[in-house]
What we know:
This protein is α+β, with helices and mostly antiparallel strands and 290 residues long. 29% of the residues lie in helices and 24% in strands. The protein has helices spanning 6-10, 18-32, 41-57, 60-69, 73-77, 99-105, 135-140, 212-217, 277-289; strands at residues 127-133, 142-148, 151-157, 166-169, 185-191, 197-200, 203-211, 219-224, 230-235, 244-247, 263-270. It has a four-stranded mixed sheet. It has a three-stranded mixed sheet with strand order 1-5-4. A two-stranded antiparallel ribbon has the order 2-3. The longest helix is centred in the N-terminal third of the chain and has 17 residues, at 41-57. It is elongated, with a radius of gyration of 29 Å. The termini are far apart.
Amino acid sequence: MDYKDYYKILGVERNASQQDIKRAYRKLARQYHPDVNPGDEGAQEKFKEINEAYEVLSDAEKRKKYDLLGSDWQRYQRAPSGGASGGFGGYGESGDFSDFFESIFGGLGGRGSTRPTTANMRRGQDVEAPVDVTLREAFNGSSRIVTAGGERLEVKIPAGVKEGSKIRIAGKGGRGIGGGTRGDILLVVQILDDPQFERRGDDLIVETRIDLYTAVLGGEARVPTLAGSNLIMKVRPGTSSGTMVRLRGQGMPHLKDEKRGDLFARIQIDVPEKLSSEQQKLFEELRARA
């Protein structure tokens, strides 16, 4: 069994911060995720290896133990056997973590005992994986087909999810040890930027263009929404560019109740580039009277 350099697997320095480790993990997890590489066994193995490295380095206690043992880990793994659970001796079967991982973190007790007991039963590890969600999907709700252990699962993405929201797939994570239950898969939501709408919490901002005459005299304007429809908005006379008009209850849905944020229309005035001679004359008369 070879030593695994978890730092090298994630491509980070040994003194990397937790933020650096998380950033590296998310980048690699997205690159090697089974849904992105269907049928690629090499990518699946790489994905498992990345998750194993992150499982250790993202946990302060596991990282400390790993750093302490280093490449001399086998000397500790060969601790004297006995009836009681001890040190890092022995390891059980796990379809999601390597024998190297189990030898340090997943001992099932002494070498003389192979029968699972309540004392050495452990729940499997939770596995995190990033999932990209468009702002429109976050507004309307959506779904994804993900692959877990060769099984295709439909996962619902609820309306109102935010950056960093975690969607749990129960019982599909790391295998339990000693008869313990499986962990969960946690899909970590990453909201993609939208070319038209800006999100601020549960509120949305959208640029709304009006002509000069509506800005001066007042009138109505159409405001697009993420639902795909347009709202009719009243424009007050003398409205200037940059004015924010609040449309209550037209923003992002709340994740835990039926309320919604607000939609803000940011006014941009379209000034005509060319005027007819009659229009120019009228503007000159208005300026003279101002």
